[in-house]
Structure formats: structure tokens, C-alpha cells
Design brief:
The strands form 2 sheets. The chain has a 7-stranded parallel sheet with strand order 3-2-1-4-5-6-7, with helices on both faces. A 7-stranded mixed sheet has the order 10-9-8-11-12-14-13, with helices on both faces. By secondary structure, it is an alpha/beta fold. The two termini are about 30 Å apart. Helix 11 crosses helix 14. The protein has 2 domains: about 190 residues, Rossmann fold, CATH 3.40.50; about 210 residues, 3-Layer(aba) Sandwich (Rossmann fold). Helices cover about 40% and strands about 15% of the residues.
């Protein structure tokens, strides 16, 4: 039964992505609240269980951000957000991702403002405007009622580098609806993508700098020297698709050796049928897809990047140090992060890429080890089940309500 207060969600859109999936999942679970959603763009892959308002305006951070017209369009979105909050009588508004978080604070009208930080901000906020965006974050994030970090390492970054009080930041992991993931994985693999008996390494993510897929493609080309029957499937779309496809061709990998199927609404049958899930990200917040791979019993080989993969595989965020050699864990292997430099086919593998190639080759040749990782991974994935994590959100919202009641007396 819904309570009288409105719970607002604020995000750029509901296109494919971890934050977007979490918004949809929480809207389905937190049924005791009247749920409202504000989108800056009308792009929806996931369903929201509640009322949806679409502003259909770009954010300042998008292409052409320095142009006066882009700034004016962003200010128009700012005004629409203020009006939406006023008309919907929200008790609290939870925002996801950097610009919605900043807008949420700047448009508060008496409602509780809760920010969800989905990436390691010290590493994720980049580009020409990074210094002043980080300055805005340091100023405005402290004005929120509470900040939810996606991992302990992100929480540490917010406290140490963005001057947030430890009591104002709570870690709540992304929820995974395990029965749904398992049911989706039982569906047939998309036509033309079945392995036909070839040992398969899969990676899933936006084809963008953050995800570092070129390092994996270069390492995989070395794997094929000893395992020519192996194949790599790179699921996702994004601005680097052309460059990654060209790199694979230049490395001598045919279209059936390194496969680019694009974005898949349901990647889980393909993930479940793969021998290894590889995750070469340069930085993360948590890495939902790593948890999904564990849930399906797929061994994980992941970069030990900030933030998330180490926490997922070991339950410990670590001390922030740099991993130099592969580290075995119960659920898979933590790997040295690559340097993020895009190199062509004519350049030799870096030390980190060579270590990736060695570990992938060894694991593809060791079914007993893969089975051990898969069994442990299924157990670990249960720590990210939907209802316990939804309960953490409920307890946080209740605590903030109680604190507001006490302060108003």
C-alpha cells in the first residue's frame, strides 16, 4: 500500500545501463511509496512502475555543452524540474548520475534530497569541464540530505576527496533480481550468436573509453595463437565501435573470431553460455554485469579498477593500492588494470595485456577451475539479491524521515 508521500526518481533517461536498471528495479520493489520519475530524455529500455514525466531537453554535459544554446536548453530543463517537484508534492527525490545529482540539489523545494553516486568520481569526471564540475560536486553534494555510494570504495572517494562527512554517506550495492536474470538466461541465444562449440570469452558494456575493450581485444589476439578456436564476443554499442572493429581486423581476427553483436536487450543467454566473462574497465562504480555473471555461474576475469570489482569478488574494497600481478579469488581472477592508452595492432602487448592473455588462455584450458569459480560465484551473487538491498533503501528512507521529524520539533 502506498504512503501519502511522493518518492521522486531523477535520471537522464532509462536507456540501457546499470543506474537505469536500478531505478526500474527499485520502482518495482518500493511499492509502499507513490513513485514518480523525471527524465531529461525520452529514451526507455526499462519499465518504470509509477508516473513518468519527460522534459525532453539535453543536459549541459552533452555534446555542444559550451554553446550558449546548449546552456539555455539545460536551464530550461532546470526550470521544468523545479516545476515538476512543486506540482508532484514530493517528500523526497532520489537522483542518479552526476548531472541529475547536481540539478536535484539546486532545485530542492523543501523535499529531502538523496544523491546516488554511481561511479568513482575522482576518476569518472573527466574532460575540459572536469575541474569545475568537481568543484560543484564538492559544494553541492554537501547540501544533500544524504548520499548513497554504490560501493565502499566510492564512499571512501567521496569522503576523502569531496569532503563529505562520513555520517552523510551510506553504501548500498546495486540490487540484482536473481530469479529474473536466471529466467532470461534460459531463453535461446540470439540467432547467429551461438558458439557452435567454440570456447567463448564475453565482455558486456558500452563501447567507450571507460570500458577499455581494446586492451581485451589485443590480449585475446595473443590467446588465439595457442587456442585458435577461441572467440571473443563484445556486447554493447558506443562511440568506439568502429575503432574496436578495425583493431580486431588489423590483429587478424575475423568477424567470427571477435564478434560485435551490438546492444542486446537480453544478453543473459549468451553470457550463461560463455566460458569466461572478462571485464577490462579502467574505472567503475561497482560493475553490475560482474554480479550478473557470478549469478549465472560464469567465471570472472576482471581488472582491479576503482571501484567495485574487488569488492564484488572478495567482499573487501582493499586499501586502494595498485595490483601488479593477477590475484586469485574464490569467484575469479583480479587482474592488473591496463593503462588506458589505445594502441594499434603493430604495437607489442603491454605487460598488463600480456598477463591478461596468459590468464585467459590458462582458464579456457582448465574446466575444473572454471567450475570452481562458477559455483562460488553463484553463492556470492546472493549477497546482491533484490529484497535485502531494497530493504536497505527502506531503512535509509525511514531513518531520514525520523531525523527530519526530530529536527522539526
Amino acid at each position: 500500500m502506498e504512503d501519502g508521500g511522493g518518492l521522486g526518481f531523477l535520471i537522464t533517461d532509462l536507456s540501457g545501463g546499470g543506474a537505469e536498471r536500478v531505478v526500474a528495479t527499485l520502482s518495482e520493489s518500493l511499492t509502499e511509496h507513490r513513485r514518480e520519475l523525471f527524465l531529461f530524455r525520452d529514451r526507455r529500455v526499462y519499465d518504470f512502475h509509477g508516473a513518468v514525466h519527460v522534459a525532453d531537453v539535453p543536459l549541459f554535459c552533452e555534446g555542444g555543452a559550451g554553446e550558449p544554446r546548449a546552456l539555455m536548453r539545460s536551464l530550461n530543463g532546470f526550470r521544468r524540474l523545479r516545476r515538476w517537484k512543486r506540482e508532484r508534492h514530493l517528500d523526497r527525490c532520489v537522483s542518479f548520475l552526476t548531472w541529475p545529482n547536481l540539478f536535484n540539489v539546486m532545485t530542492r523545494r523543501g523535499e529531502q534530497v538523496i544523491l546516488s553516486v554511481r561511479n568513482n568520481p575522482s576518476r569518472a569526471v573527466r574532460g575540459t569541464y572536469a575541474p569545475w564540475i568537481k568543484a560543484l560536486m564538492r559544494t553541492l553534494y554537501r547540501r544533500a540530505d544524504h548520499v548513497v555510494a554504490i560501493s565502499e570504495d566510492v564512499r571512501r572517494d567521496l569522503i576523502e576527496n569531496f569532503r563529505l562527512a562520513p555520517t552523510s554517506v551510506t553504501t548500498i550495492y546495486n540490487p540484482i533480481c536473481l530469479p529474473e536474470v536466471e529466467a532470461l538466461a534460459r531463453r535461446p541465444v540470439a540467432p547467429g550468436l551461438d558458439s557452435r562449440g567454440r570456447p567463448t570469452v564475453i565482455t558486456i558494456g558500452r563501447l567507450a573509453i571507460q570500458k577499455g575493450q581494446w586492451h581485451l581485444i589485443r590480449a585475446f589476439s595473443e590467446v588465439r595463437r595457442t587456442l585458435p578456436e577461441a572467440r571473443l564476443v563484445v556486447v554493447g554499442d558506443g562511440p568506439l565501435r568502429g575503432a574496436l572493429s578495425e583493431l580486431a581486423r588489423d590483429l587478424g581476427c575475423g568477424p567470427d573470431d571477435v564478434v560485435f553483436p551490438g546492444f542486446l536487450d537480453n544478453p543473459f543467454p549468451l553470457l550463461a553460455a560463455s566460458e569466461i566473462f572478462a571485464f577490462p574497465s579502467l574505472w567503475e562504480g561497482l560493475g553490475n554485469v560482474v554480479i550478473e555473471a557470478l549469478a549465472l555461474g560464469v567465471p570472472v576475469v576482471t581488472a582491479d579498477c576503482h571501484s567495485g570489482p574487488r569488492e564484488i569478488l572478495t567482499g573487501d574494497p582493499g586499501d586502494g593500492g595498485v595490483l601488479m600481478i593477477p590475484e586469485d579469488t574464490p569467484c575469479g581472477v583480479l587482474m592488473p588494470s591496463c593503462d588506458g592508452v589505445f594502441r594499434g595492432a603493430d604495437e607489442p602487448l603491454t605487460d598488463a595485456e600480456a598477463r591478461w592473455a596468459a590468464v585467459l588462455g590458462e582458464l579456457l584450458s582448465d574446466p575444473r577451475r572454471r567450475r570452481r569459480y562458477g559455483e562460488a560465484g553463484r553463492r556470492r551473487a546472493k549477497d546482491f539479491a533484490l529484497e535485502p538491498i531494497a530493504d536497505q533503501w527502506r531503512r535509509l528512507l525511514l531513518r531520514l524521515d525520523q531525523e527530519r521529524s526530530c529536527s522539526s520539533r
